[in-house]
Amino acid sequence: MAENATAPLTGKALLQKVKEFDNLRVREKAKRCGYYTAKGDTIRVDVTGFYDAVLAAKGLHLDPESARDGRGREATYRVSVHKNGQIVIGSAYTQEMGLQPGDEFIIKLGYKHIRLVQVDQEEQEEE
């Protein structure tokens, strides 16, 4: 079982120790601030966790997952052809573009790509 000898420092205490250990290398700073795990004779330093904690202590949060509401999936901007030959574009993309039910598109086939061109209202009235 992996164990930490001490709880990792956070907030102002972490920033104070980082300034105190200014002359040390990053791995040693992380280790002395408690960002490591020990299993037997092996010690693993969590440099990424250390950097994240330093940034959070300075007020900069880089975790994009915390900004999401936790529901649904994130848009990947990729689609695949289904077994029946159809391509489905999800609602995340149509909402991002502000499309409404009934909007029409012209399909233009190119070399290794498909382009959808939205039909304008003026063009629909001419036909």
Automatic annotation (TrEMBL):
Q: Could you state one GO cellular component term attached to this entry?
A: protein-DNA complex
Entries under SUPFAM superfamilies matching the protein: AbrB/MazE/MraZ-like
The cross-references to InterPro entries, in alphabetical order and at most eight, read: AbrB-like (IPR027360), SpoVT-AbrB_dom (IPR007159), SpoVT-AbrB_sf (IPR037914)
Q: Which UniProt keywords apply?
A: DNA-binding
Q: What molecular functions are annotated in GO for this chain?
A: DNA-binding transcription repressor activity; transcription cis-regulatory region binding
| Record has Signal as a keyword | no
Q: Name one Pfam family in it.
A: AbrB-like
Q: Does the keyword Zinc apply?
A: no
Q: Where is the SpoVT-AbrB domain?
A: 76-121
Entries under PROSITE patterns matching the protein: SPOVT_ABRB
Designated name of the protein: AbrB family transcriptional regulator
Question: What are the top taxonomic ranks of the organism?
Answer: Bacteria, Bacillati, Cyanobacteriota, Cyanophyceae, Leptolyngbyales
